[in-house]
Structure prediction request, 515 residues.
Amino acid sequence: MNKIAVYSFMLIALVFWGCGEFLDEVSQDEIKPSTVTDLEQILLGDGYFNPSASGAGTFNMYDITDIFTDDIMCNGVATTKWRTIYREYDAKFLWDDNMFQLEGDGDDIQFWQNPYDGIGTCNVVLDYLDAMRGDDVSRENLRGEALVLRSWYYFHLVNFFGMPYNYGDPSVNPGVPLILSAEVKEDKPARNTVREVYEQIVNDMTLGRQLMLQNPKERNFFRIRPIAAAAMLARVYLYMEEWDKAIAYADTVLSEQSALVNLNTLTPPTVVNVTFATAESVYDTQNPVEIIWGRQLGGCETYATDPGGNDGRIPYSVSDTLQNLVLAGKSLTDAIEGDWQGNRDVVDYRCLFYFSIAKDGRRPYLLAPNKNRRAGGGKLYQGIRTAEVYLIRAEAYAQKNLESPSGEFVQRALADLNYLRLHRIASNYYEELNITDPEELFTAVQKERRTELCGETNNRWFDLRRWGMPAISHRLYENANETPTVTTIVPAQYALPIPEEALDRNASLVQNIRQ
Prediction:
């Protein structure tokens, strides 16, 4: 926790780089914090992990688990230039206990150290706020923002390294250490239980939201606002299986922001060799219809690197099961290029707007989930969207219906699902879902979540965890003529191994048992 020590005892001098759309003005001089505004700049710079002025960054927590899921498959190594990418991710792809230590994989600080660095910055802001000069409205609004941001990091950490909240006894299962102060203590923190971490998350998000509501400041969607805190609470309560609270917070969000982007109205991309961008999508910051909270990412998973030519598929790409799901029985070639008259045949427009598309020879395939760019902008965004909130509410009603079948629960779940699908399915193919069977309804929710939220803020990995940790299998091979290594995940592997470097720094940590 070196960063915390520097902040705490030296009241750090930070150099701020330009952050594009995030900040109107950013000082490039060193600052010794003395005002609330100074601490705000620290939170915006280091708490949110802004990319550098060049657009390159070092932090990304939001799409790093796709490699673990059934949304990604291995294609082997078509050319030697991709062997490095193959070897960088092979241990993660097989859920290896030593994934962070094996040669080529390293100690990936995105999973453990960087979130704790963000927590450390939030703690500095919270510890020093009362000593800073400034008006009380700004002070308390910033306090609320820091509390919610800290809890967002803990939410991801406990879902990386702890077992799901609904598995076994969360009051016994180990989670992650709760560090709630910038003060550097001699005693190293042990792991709190999953329940303790979730309780802290709920308390911080609830208080943070209240503080921001009571001390309103005009913010755009690049900053955490009360509506973002409510959306996050809806997600947290969904994971805790407190369906009524998840519904209540979803209602709060949708009463304020309910619109969805209609993919029928957007211009589909033209694919030559590879496309990483579309002119518009659901994270289009110039038309932020759905963005409740979004941040520019500082780095992305490199298994989806641009192939740079038609010389074979990259080592890891979108799995056949996910591709078939979004194609809905249609040809990707027909969806992209159409027939000889140029007519496209698309059922679900998410196959075009939610993925990068590459070509292997003349055959197009879905390269990676990607709904985060705007053509020519080169910027990636993730966060939480209105569409997710509809799905949270739909699932909560479907789950309630599984427990106690009710026509009212069914109709409310279907209303949310159909409203979302109306904005995603091609108009000439759209038909309303009309489901009465409880299990079938829940399956429909699962399908929509997988399709709609692919590649975003670790949703698929977290969903697999809380939906019973299914025994999915991965096939790894370097050359097409070799016998692949086939591994099937067991429940214990749904909690990631704590990196050895973290264990070396803190003798109080206990490693996860993953067998």
Remarks:
- The longest strand covers residues 363-369.
